[in-house]
Amino acid sequence: MIDISNLNYKYKHGQTVLEDINLRINQGEIVSIIGKNGSGKSTLARLISAITMPETGTILIDGIDTRDQERFIEIRKNIGIVFQNPENQIIFNNVHDDMIFALDNLGIENQEERIQEALKQVQMEEYINHDTYELSLGQKQRITIAGVLSIKPKYIVMDEPTAMLDPEGKEEIRKIIKELKKLGYTIIYITNIIDEIFISDRVIMLEKGKIIKEFKTKDILENIQFLKDHKIAIPKVVELMEKLKKNGINIDINDFI
């Protein structure tokens, strides 16, 4: 479980980014965090994944405070992050070399077995000896996900992982996340694309660094007007579903999740 209590964070020049964040993420959940640019989503992602430390408040990963330097390796083994741009996350020119780097740093054994298994999970096993610069952006993102999976963390933070991908690449990532959900991974999914929240169980909305709304994904149609009022773009298909429901036509949102 990830337990966030009274979390506050400011930039060095004093601007408040996150204020009084209280949030609990349970094992096996997929939680989408949405909000406009500048709402604090990416900062929260970095804080949850222990890249950035809270100014005040606490983030506990299975009871371990992310500030606890003596247990830093344990934290790193428990939680991984996938960034928006995979080219910022890939270090080496070879897929195998890039994946083995993190495993070496964390002192993880059975490296080859883990790499093969992780690549298979993202359907990239035949690329193990390829040069990373020859891969498409979507393939690079799948490699970064495989790198995280090879560590076998309990929690994965995904910070707008499809933002730079074409429609085919986006769909590939969504399929991977659905499979990870079946395997019991806990995923914190940062996005501002409403289409993508349907893979999640719960939605948290940030605005100006504060949580202003929380709802279950299956209840999205009851929250469309709220999202519109807060300038969140709603896909036409979701607007149509809302209109049909208002006109008495039964819509089972589970068919779209």
Arithmetic mean of pLDDT: 92
Query: How would you name the oligomeric state of the polypeptide chains in this document?
Result: single chain
The largest sheet, given as strand count, sense and whether it forms a barrel, is: 6 strands, mixed
Unreliable residue runs: none
- Number of E-state strands: 10
Q: Compute the CA-based radius of gyration.
A: 19 Å
Helix/strand order, N-terminal first: EEEHEEHEHHHEHEEEHH
Number of domains: 1
Relevant CATH superfamily: P-loop containing nucleotide triphosphate hydrolases
Structural class: alpha/beta
Give me the number of helical elements: 8
What would you call the shape?
Answer: globular
**Range of strand content:** 15-25%
Helix percent reads 25-40%
Describe the 3D structure.
This protein is α/β, with parallel strands linked by helices and 257 residues long. It contains 8 helices and 10 strands. The chain has one domain (2-221): Rossmann fold (3-Layer(aba) Sandwich). A hairpin with a 2-residue loop joins strand 4 (56-61) and strand 5. The longest helix has 16 residues, at 167-182. The relative contact order is 0.16. The model has no long low-confidence stretch (mean pLDDT 92).
